[in-house]
Fold this protein.
Amino acid sequence: MTLGPLMLDLEGLEITLEEREILRHPLVGGVILFARNYESPQQVSRLTAQIHELRQPPLLVAVDQEGGRVQRFREGFSQLPPAHLIGRQHDLDADGARAAAATLGWLMAVELRAVGVDLSFAPVLDLDWGVSEVIGDRAFHRSPEVVASLAGHYMRGMAHAGMIATGKHFPGHGAVTADSHKTLPEDRRSYVDITEDMQPYASLIPQGLNAVMAGHVAYQNVDPLPASFSRWWLTNELRERLGFRGAIFSDDLVMVAAESIGDIESRARAALEAGCDMIIVCNDRVAAVRVIDDLSGYEEPASQVRLARLHGRKSLERRELLASEDWGSARERVRHLTDPPPLELDG
């Protein structure tokens, strides 16, 4: 059995009988976990093992563990700072910030790999234009060159831990004020202006960026369709112009921003036809089942190959990790990002 194009969620801390049946369907390829699925490192280790044991090749297990306000697993995990703090450090000490980015990427990924998670949807490659509340401090910096540099080091840290990076939200979510969870953001800039947001992707793709998540943002002066559903953005721009050969994820198709495409079946087909390899349907079990029924017989061999490359590589057991000097040193360096030394005033 190959990996299907659908990533789903779970209701709680264990897999229900209904969920076992759904996850064994050939159209399913992955599971995304949320805070409601997490109680402790031991519990989530058992959960990921159960998911991986359901079929071969194993389903992909993903989570959003960027840091700051977007960190699903907290108790028992290192508290990760938002990317913006690394960008702020870059303005004072570029070399130190690059080292911090690599450390943060490694720490985030190695802790997740130790409990069986394959993917964290990170890093954010959006530029900090100073207008988007939903992106805000999740972005490294305003400068595309700085974002590319810091995200590149973060990506290499992740790779060292056995996890591929997922850049998001293509082509760029930082210049719109609206939250795509609640409405469809519209970016009315010209194509030339938007190319600045794509510069981090252009820099990181040759360096081995293996996955990208598209954003639910409509760039009205380029294509009226939101990027997740736009063949122009995903195929013409990302694949052909930028030469991306990795896997493309949609953002969650149940978000309000996706509703402009139509019902859930229309959204799923539009995203796949635009160039997505895997579509995410969360927090609506009825919608997920409807997509499975509607996509009966769907198969895309190229996508199956891309998705098979996303499994996490061999990693340390959690007990080994917590006893390692590298982990202790990384935690200490990250702690200094979020808990700087007190300001000393001259007497």
Summary: The longest strand covers residues 28-33. Residues 6-336 form a domain with the TIM Barrel fold (CATH 3.20.20.300). The first helix runs from residue 17 to 23.
